[in-house]
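Justification of resources, computational component.

The compute hours requested in this renewal are based largely on the per-chain cost of generating structure records like the one below. Each record pairs the submitted sequence with a full structure-token output. That output is archived, and it is also reused by downstream analysis tasks.
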Amino acid sequence: MGYCTDEQLKGFLATAPGVEKAIVGSGVILLKYWLEVSPDEQTRRMEQRISDPRKIWKLSPMDLKSYSRWYDYSRARDDMFMASDTAWAPWYVANSDDKKRARLNILTHILFNIPYEAPHRDKVKLPKRQKAEGYIEPDYAYRRVPDVH
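The structure output for this chain reads:
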């Protein structure tokens, strides 16, 4: 896409693993995620952005340009994985066709990979509710929000 020269790209890919190793060496847990979207799902999302006035703001000229270059981006992803998928900072690929499942799977993965001790919590018991003691619900015409969903 012209963001950098081939030489700059090669330099970045050669340098990234060492930088990541230094970050991990300082005690940071580094988890890298690639959110994989199928070509069909990408098309569905783009078409939805084009046709839905609530989502058109998400669509940029760069999105349209990059959409046409699926395999260039695939090659770049492959090069990135080959250069920077290391034992100390591995890449994890998450199927992201279903956004909600992808988020839940990634959050679960993060929590599984970060050591922690669960805090001690006292057992909780709901208290009894007070008695009505003569309270009567008024006959009032509340303006209700419609239950659309």
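The first strand starts at residue 32 and ends at 36. The two ends are 42 Å apart (CA to CA).
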